[in-house]
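Q: How would the structure tokens look for this protein?
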Amino acid sequence: MNTSHKVCRYSLIVLRILMGALFCFGGFSYFWMKSMPMDPATPAGKFAIALCATGYFFPFLKLSEGIAGILLFFKRSTPFALLILAPIILNIALFALFLDRSGLPMACVLLLFLGILAWENWDKYKSIFQA
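A: Here is the predicted structure in token form.
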């Protein structure tokens, strides 16, 4: 195995663990910190307040994020974790694009990580896209 192949393999492991830690911490920390600072005068704040008012959305979202984050720690469950996280990350990106531009750099990083990990696991997804 050549050096560049090793670097690429270890980079993917680091990327997967980093993304797992991010979503695991971000998901489960909601249950300890509960409050999300949002300005109710902004469109982003109004959107977040409306989602909080449902009573179920944020606990479900954050639990899903946390579980998917844990799944990313294990290579075998990575494709399933990415299926859970894909719509979440897409919504993060759209929220940042349309409601709160300050989150756009992080959204781009998450989209990049998702794309790289999905590309690495493409063989697991091919059958979904075949007729």
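The longest helix spans residues 3-28.

The mean pLDDT is 92.

Upvote if useful.
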